[in-house]
Design brief:
Elements lengths: L4 E9 L6 E24 L5 E14 L13 H29 L1
Antiparallel strand pairs: 1-2, 2-3
């Protein structure tokens, strides 16, 4: 499979105020997508064979060079923390998408 990407949006909550601080939109291509498919057979009561395809494993990898834009009004000292928080969220999102892909195929 080619041209797979992670797309979505999230509202970031401010640690200081508890309110929503920023809406971020993500559209980031996967640098690698590994999908292992298993093939099985199921037999019906009348002897027919029904092929079944299942996803055994799904692994999606984002580039290490993910660009995270920071809000203009964010002080310079907080930009790195903001970028690291967004990257952590992205990694967690990829992990969730892997589970969704495997369970819902």
């Amino acid at each position: 499979m080619t041209n797979l990407e992670l797309r979505g949006s999230a509202k970031l909550r401010s640690i200081e105020t508890g309110g929503f601080a920023e809406l971020i939109l993500i559209s980031e291509p996967f640098s690698l997508a590994e999908i292992v498919i298993g093939f099985e057979k199921q037999f019906t009561d009348d002897g027919n064979t029904i092929p079944q395809i299942s996803v055994v494993m799904a692994k999606f990898t984002l580039s290490e060079e993910v660009y995270v834009g920071t809000p203009d009004n964010l002080p310079q000292g907080k930009r790195h923390k903001y970028e690291e928080g967004v990257k952590k969220w992205l990694k967690e999102s990829v992990s969730e998408r892997e589970k969704d892909f495997k369970n819902n195929f």
